[in-house]
Write a structure and sequence with these properties.
2 helices, mainly alpha, about 45 residues
Length: about 45
């Protein structure tokens, strides 16, 4: 059961990181929002 929970959590994190990567492409460079997205991606990996 613990393996299934870990697998689902991993899948959810992949979705979150994928969306953050997409946001990084959309947001203008050198903005507070983009900097926050980059920091979250580094912390998440």
């Amino acid at each position: 059961m613990a393996g299934a929970i870990a697998h689902r959590f991993s899948n959810t994190m992949m979705v979150v990181l994928g969306r953050m990567e997409r946001l990084e492409l959309i947001l203008p460079a050198k903005t507070k929002e983009r900097d926050m997205t980059t920091l979250e991606m580094v912390d998440g990996q």
